[in-house]
Amino acid sequence: MSFNATVGASAPLYETLYGSTDMASLSWAEKQWVAWYIWVGNPVIATGLMSFLLHEVVYFGRCIPWIIVDSIPYFRKWKLQPAKIPTPGEQWECTKQVLLSHFTIELPTIWLFHPLAESLGMSTHHVPFPSWKVMAPQVFFFFFFEDFFHFLAHQALHTGLLYKHIHKIHHKYSAPFGLAAEYAHPAEVAILGTGTIAGPLLYCYFTQNLHILTVYIWITLRLFQAIDAHSGYDFPWSLQHILPFWSGADHHDFHHMAFTNNFSTSFRWWDRIFGTDEKYRQYRERVKAMKKKNVDKEEFAKLEQKLLEQVEREGIVAEREAETGVKAKSQ
Length: 331
Hints:
The chain is mostly helical. It has helices at about 5-10, 10-20, 30-40, 45-70, 90-120, 130-155, 160-165, 185-205, 210-230, 250-260, 270-275, 280-290, 295-325. Helix 1 packs parallel to helix 3 (about 30-40), helix 5 runs parallel beside helix 8 (about 185-205) and helix 6 crosses helix 9. The chain is elongated. Pfam families: FA_hydroxylase. It is found in: Membrane.
């Protein structure tokens, strides 16, 4: 349906929402935004539906390239744990758990988001959009806030009952893959998802200057970050090689393999400041030392696999300690 036809079909709603808006000054994207809200006919439903669809399209859309990469042997040389490739059965089981969380936690919550957001002063159906100069620092704040929240909440999830009954599901895969980014207990989705949404809501409450488009950009980038961190691949062009403080797959893959260390999401600095990356840095130093040895690729692969197996064995012990609260006796 065209912009003019949509407006004409819902003239009363159009006058209520956009009666004082100069449509001639709007961009094509802004006109489509208006058309969406008018076409749906209810701002609450329009925002909720758009929010849910955005999440599903971005999440599974970003996972598909990693599913393809996992199916092509050529990319194994960049696989962080090359001996562990997810099977179709594992990917399907993961997808079912992810969809369960999406429909039991995220979908009901999303319908409350519009009235809560607008009550805090967030713009939703409004046009024109804010400029990039306004949105960019807001998105960075959301990254910063979520990363610190996740750093604290993630460590809490590694203790006692919280691990045994909630976070253990996410650690099913010691070698994660893209789809596993949101493979988690619904309670964990709610806990860690709070860090994703609380940043925008708090920012909106204190500044009264936030458009939901900025939140959508933030959610999209956050999903890309989470899925890529779980991909299991470290390419030469991966972002952590451009931005040294970016965590990336190399950082988070170790967390799944060793169970300990690297609790943050987007950035490395909290783990470095609080010393929760010590084992990870020791592991990287050992890999670096192995690369300096004058051995062929086949011999290096054997040495690396032996090191990976050692780290994973230590991780199994650490996981048991977290679940039972009993520290293992040293051999």
